[in-house]
Amino acid sequence: MKTKILKNTKEDIEKAARILRDGGLVAFPTETVYGLGANAFDEKAVAAVYEAKGRPSDNPMIVHISRASDIGQLTRRLSPDIVTLIENFWPGPLTLVVKKRPEVPDRTTGGLDTVAVRMPDNETALELISTALCPVAAPSANLSGSPSPTRAVDVIEDLDGKVDAIIQGEDCRVGIESTVVDMTGDVPTILRPGIITAENLEAALGKKVEYDKAITGKNGGIDGDYKPKSPGMKYKHYAPKAEMIVVEGERARVKAEIERLKGLNERLGNNVGVILFEEKAFIEAAHDFFARLRDLDKEGVDLILAGALSDTDGVGFAVMNRMLKSAGYNIVRVQ
Ligand code: TXA
Ligand code: MG
Q: What is the DSSP string of 85-98?
């Protein structure tokens, strides 16, 4: 397939919208990561997204809308809490899991009776969705298992030749995927952490929110019998081609251990890359993390040593969720 590489001009966005309406696949920028979109109501188009990404088809997609009121096309039930979160955080990096209307295809929701919805905070994305005149189902625009794409070049690298069009926009402002919150139970439950934190949600709602065990459990809850609510949490994720180790502990010790392991491995003839963010610079870490993984892979490193961020529930915690997955929970602890 020949992929059209488009710009984020009005004219090109109209071309892309037409492709979506005709059942095609378009990759587009959002504020979090690039998405690979299809008409959410077109089962064939949605199936083609799984195909292009090489993704298991029980993994549900996030449906993107351009006006908050369009959530009515996807669900009938809007609780006061859902309305509060929409008012506080949309457009923005917050995905709400709600009961789905029967019209939303099973293909889009991976057979679940719920649907994940978000309104992205990105002009190009909003214009594309509103011109397409349909909600747009879009997972991250990477090959399944590889790091999420935060730059147009990353998308081209993974999907050129596999999708109808790629809109080249700016680098993503946030850099990690949206916070996903399950709003179908009594207590709002975070299924995937992001830059909108539990504290942010609690401040808006005036009540406690919980984390799904898949996030807080050992090894991301993938060991043992626990079945995560968010099916995406169970797959091997974001893995760089290189072997990766996360070094955890007191900051000075972490630095020293990374230096030691680096020297050791270099003497063995290995090419070693290091990811060590400034202490407490969590927003920057979120912005850079996936791009760093991809760049180190391009440099052909054999081993990536990453310093853990110490944060138990904020933005640093959301970055750690990705970092540990990337490393396949390969952790070295220093005291
Ligand atoms: O920032 C983002 O959310 C990006 C951009 C493109 O919007 N999208 C994204 O999509 O990260 P994806 O497919 O890579 O991740 C979607 C996550 C998965 O973990 C999936 O299991 C979960 O959301 N999810 C989707 N629908 C769900 C549902 N009905 N119930 C529970 N989890 C759901
Ligand atoms: Mg993804």
A: HHHHH-SSSEEEEE
Reply yes or no: is the peptide bond before residue 149 cis, omega within 30 of 0: no
User: pLDDT digit string (tens) for 212-258?
Assistant: 988 887 665 444 445 556 655 555 577 889 999 999 999 999 999 99
Torsion sign across C-alpha atoms 82, 83, 85, 86: positive
| Residues with CB in 5 Å of ion ligand 2 | 140
Distance CA 88, CA 63 (A): 19
The two three-digit tokens of residue 67, written as one number: 């006006």
Mean residue pLDDT across the chain? 94
pTM: 0.95
Ligand nearest to the CA of 92: 1
Task: Please report the pLDDT score of residue 232 as a whole number.
Answer: 55
Share of residues in the chain with pLDDT > 70 (%)? 94
Q: Measure Cα distances from 247 to 255, 307, 320, 330, 332 in Å.
A: 9, 5, 11, 9, 5
Q: Which residues share a beta bridge with 115? A: 98
* Nearest residue to 107 (alpha-carbon basis) of 57, 64, 51, 144: 57
Q: Which residues line ligand 1 (CB under 6 A)?
A: 30, 32-33, 35, 59-62, 93, 95, 97, 109, 112, 114-116, 120, 138-140, 177-178, 180, 191-192, 229-233
